[in-house]
Protein: DNA-binding GntR family transcriptional regulator
Amino acid sequence: MSAKTKRSPESLVDLMARDIQAGVFTPGSWLKQIDLENRYGATRMDVRRALDQLALKRLVRHVPNRGYHVHALDDRQADEIRDVRVILETAAAESMVENVGPADLEDLRRLAARFDELTLTGTILEQYEANIAFHVRLLKLCSNQELVNIVMELRGRGPSAPATQWKTRARIEQSGREHLLMIEALAAHDTAALRRVLTAHIRQTGLEGVASTQPPKHKSG
Amino acid sequence: MSAKTKRSPESLVDLMARDIQAGVFTPGSWLKQIDLENRYGATRMDVRRALDQLALKRLVRHVPNRGYHVHALDDRQADEIRDVRVILETAAAESMVENVGPADLEDLRRLAARFDELTLTGTILEQYEANIAFHVRLLKLCSNQELVNIVMELRGRGPSAPATQWKTRARIEQSGREHLLMIEALAAHDTAALRRVLTAHIRQTGLEGVASTQPPKHKSG
DNA sequence: GGCAAAATAATTGGCGCCAAAATGTTTGCA
DNA sequence: TGCAAACATTTTGGCGCCAATTATTTTGCC
Structure:
């Protein structure tokens, strides 16, 4: 591979996290340090550091004297993380509705339009990035910055890999429609509606049967 | 100091995190690697690893070529983290009430009693541990394990250092009473009451004026 | 005596090497 | 031919040294 891309070691974790998310490494596969060195043009020490940090983030798992392998979370964990996201993002909805302004709506409409555009013309990765951009902008409306950080982290940890997230074109288009519904709810300052859409969007279920005010139930017990 | 205490390098992060929480290192002070080596009887590499992980956890901050210093979070961040804890723990309340059984109540009563006992006879650190033990046991009632993990992590990051947490004996005794109120609410399967107590307990405000059902407001804007 | 600049000391941080452990392969034996 | 043991290869992981950078003290000059 290209010998030296000279990346800032700080962002190597993020880079690897993205690649794991993007499905470059299949879940369960072992991450050999040599390969990572070559792929990212990093030193062995940087790779080890990044691996450790990713293990702390639960994205990879460390087995002493065996190495690191990407952590494939089971259905239960995936459900649980989704539920936590629903809890946090619906809790943030109130703050979002309070803080939203015309400029925010403008931005969001632009980002939603871009996502829809890429539904037709873009690659899966571009769609993924556009979706992230929309949601980051949306989350920034929340005044609680720590909450935003935690949600972003969960988003990275959950089963939001593009490969598994949007299985069908219909699902992608549905996501696009839900983005618009969120903007509508924000514009109308309708917290309950926003919560409903967010819940459906995160759970990727239809909008029917989603209670608006009460916190989400936990499936697994 | 004692040359080799031979700790498992895995837990060094937790150990240091605890010490930071316990106020062994004053906020803002620089953590010299040599001192840490001696104090924990660890190798330089282990210290560096732990430092990096703590930086990722936002417990310490890294300044290149200057070192690491313990990160004193400002009031705003402290408030925000508290708010997130309120959101998550009140959301967990429903699941807790659903899952609680007689054996759980028994355990909780025992742990609460132990906390009260240490109010009189124990050191601050013992009180801290007993408190943690109670809350871990309480959280374990929640079926969502990921939620539990996140709350535990937040608990470690938030301003829950014993030094700042229980300023007065009156405050400690109040905490003990609140523990009992939680158990009562659990026994009565009263989700709303549990939420109320949890909110007051985390915020360390009185029980008056705490809404039971609606999510917490965010102070900082 | 006070300030600036140079020399010294202390600390961080990067890099590479080699031992320990595990995996895969070949060989030997029943 | 199937199984087991020994060998070879690969991979991880620990340790130490030294360069780069920063803090501190000393020295020299005005």
Summary: The two ends of chain A are 48 Å apart (CA to CA). Residues 32-34, 48, 64-67 of chain A lie near DNA strand D (CB under 10 Å from a C1').
